[in-house]
Amino acid sequence: MGFLIKWFLRILVLTLLVGAGFSFYLTTLGPDPVEKPERQMSEVWADYPFRSHYVEVNGSTLHYIDEGNAEGQVFLFLHGNPTSSYLWRNILPIVADSGVRAIAVDNIGFGASDRPDIDYTFAEHATYLEGFIEALELKDITLVIHDWGSALGFDYAYRHQENVRAIAFMEAIYQVGSLSDLGQPGQTIFRGFRTPGIGELIVLGFNGFVERLLPFSVVRELTADEMAAYREPFPTFGSRLPTLVWPRQIPFDGSPEDVADRVEDFLSWLPSSSVPKLLLHFEPGALIPPAAAEEIVSTWTNIKGVQLGEGIHFVQEDHPEEIGREIVAWFSELSDVDEPAEQGTEDSELSEESLSE
């Protein structure tokens, strides 16, 4: 037994040293630049038949796709970690075909967007998102959000309530408590991500989010082409830095404090807000299991919940058609409700004019 303990300690020390080396590498050199591809993304990513667009925000370039009716209602799709607009490739066309304008942006440091030398904190991501929306002059937005994209979307909606028409969300960050609230596997995983040296080894060295957590969190088996597409934005240690920062930004037990404050703000507002909301949830789910979905639907204001079957976290890979159809149907219902209300207002005004005459 003593022999095994000694070998275990040696392996642990070696792991810490290697991880510390990765940390030193990043601290010294920063993230590796990733050049914007001259070719269309469809040549790189499997089944991604969209024209690429680029816009400058805060001195860096963000990549996005923009489909459908340029004059239609704006739908903005926001992804999380470690994905990109590629996650929405099979959903966005369904929504765009309904006559709206469907946009999916790659967050700074993800997809084909630039990798500037920043810290990739929640606050920085939020600044780039706001800059993107301002640069494209997007108005009356319907947000379609997932994972960290949900936190960014909820935060934007809270801070810009006048510019958000509705919110559709799935596997979203709807509460944050203590790390001890997680089951043992979850605690082990996130403690590893948040431990200096260990996190660098797992995420930067082994590309753990893409190679392990992503395929593990999809019910079906991702194809070789799809895995290659998810790997493509993160070829080097430095390019993977944004994927490591995100798990360290989850404000477990109130830390980081600035993130905890912003999350508390939008979660205090969201449940009772009048903004129309659609929750798409799955079995067993990861962030929103069935019991949590039931509670949200029963306690939040102006919300519709739809259960779409088996799914873990990256549910867009398992149920793209169902997700697209439900979003279109939900928004059509909202539009049908709005039209009679507007007509009713006009009728009321006409009646008042008639009476006054």
Brief sketch in words of this structure:
The chain is α/β, with parallel strands linked by helices and 357 residues long. The protein has helices at 2-29, 92-96, 122-135, 148-159, 184-194, 198-205, 208-216, 224-231, 241-249, 257-269, 290-299, 320-356, and strands spanning 53-57, 60-68, 74-78, 101-105, 141-147, 164-172, 277-284, 303-311. An 8-stranded mixed sheet has the order 1-2-4-3-5-6-7-8, with helices on both faces.
Overview of this structure, please?
This protein is an alpha/beta fold. The chain has a single domain (2-346), classed as Alpha/Beta hydrolase fold, catalytic domain (Rossmann fold, 3-Layer(aba) Sandwich). The chain is 46% helix and 16% strand. It contains 12 helices and 8 strands. It has helices at 2-29, 92-96, 122-135, 148-159, 184-194, 198-205, 208-216, 224-231, 241-249, 257-269, 290-299, 320-356; strands spanning 53-57, 60-68, 74-78, 101-105, 141-147, 164-172, 277-284, 303-311. An 8-stranded mixed beta sheet has the order 1-2-4-3-5-6-7-8, sandwiched between helices. The longest helix is centred in the last third of the chain and has 37 residues, at 320-356.
